Structure prediction request, 188 residues.
Amino acid sequence: MNLLQKTIIFISVLIAFSTLAQNKLTSLKVDGDIVYFSTNSAKKQNSPACMSSQNKDKWTLSLNTETGKASYALLVIAASDNKAILVLSANDCADKTAFERAQSIELDITANNTKVLIPVFKEVAYGFSQNHRGNYYCGSTINSNDENGSPYLNSNCSCTNGSVKVEIGGSSATNYNRLYFKCMMLAE
Prediction:
């Protein structure tokens, strides 16, 4: 088999397994740590057997992963700017039973030849968590409050009020571990 034949086979396999659908969002919902979204046209591939037929137009993402959080940010941008998205199916229902999981989201910034707004993220808190000989401690170096006066960083080292935790480094020594992070959110 020559290189051209191998390349053609490789591309065919990629097309078969990289099921992409280009659509605009029609719904976007967050329930707990799962994002549900649907698009304006039918999926262009066979859905996994685990998916329920009543959910044939829906996808899910988990907010428990960095990829899920980043994909959710792209969905919010797509919804606010009415942009098309490309959805790559994971071909499973790992996030929620009977719902097809999206592996990745791509924002189509050329759709409609409209102006693309680059999102600006703001840092709303800085903190660190440490474990020293089994004793857990959470500290904040800067912590701002939302419009209701609630802090963005709580005492459990969780980012709250729509902010997302981004790890920025760490250090460790014998019986000692420290993780530095910041809480970020889309600027308005």
Q: What stands out?
A: The mean pLDDT is 78. The first strand starts at residue 20 and ends at 31. Residues 121-186 form one domain.
